[in-house]
Design a protein that fits this description.
The chain has helices spanning 2-8, 11-20, 23-26, 37-42, 75-85; strands at 32-33, 45-49, 53-60, 63-71. The model has no long low-confidence stretch (mean pLDDT 92). It has five helices and four strands.
């Protein structure tokens, strides 16, 4: 889902998101935990990227798995909708 979303964004925004993601290489746990029981069950976390965007990801062993990115105005509602669709 993330790659499809990234392709649809303005090129400058997409580049900034990718640059901001570099912080996950150093310390992915510096991120915030999404405040939703279903998100906690998945271990879903997020960071702020490109000023107004939220990048949601989860950890699997030592790997960072990027799930999706949404603009801050709708990020938490979209994340909740995504989690509902997973039927956790």
């Amino acid at each position: 889902m993330f790659q499809k979303q990234l392709k649809k964004l303005d090129r400058q925004v997409a580049v900034q998101i990718l640059e901001d993601m570099d912080c996950l290489k150093d310390d992915p746990l510096q991120s915030s935990v999404h405040d939703d029981p279903r998100a906690r069950k998945l271990g879903l976390r997020y960071i702020k990227v490109a000023h107004d965007w939220r990048l949601f990801f989860r950890m699997k062993d030592q790997q960072v798995l990027v799930e999706f990115v949404f603009h801050r105005e709708s990020a938490y509602e979209e994340a909740a909708r995504y989690l509902c669709s997973m039927k956790l």
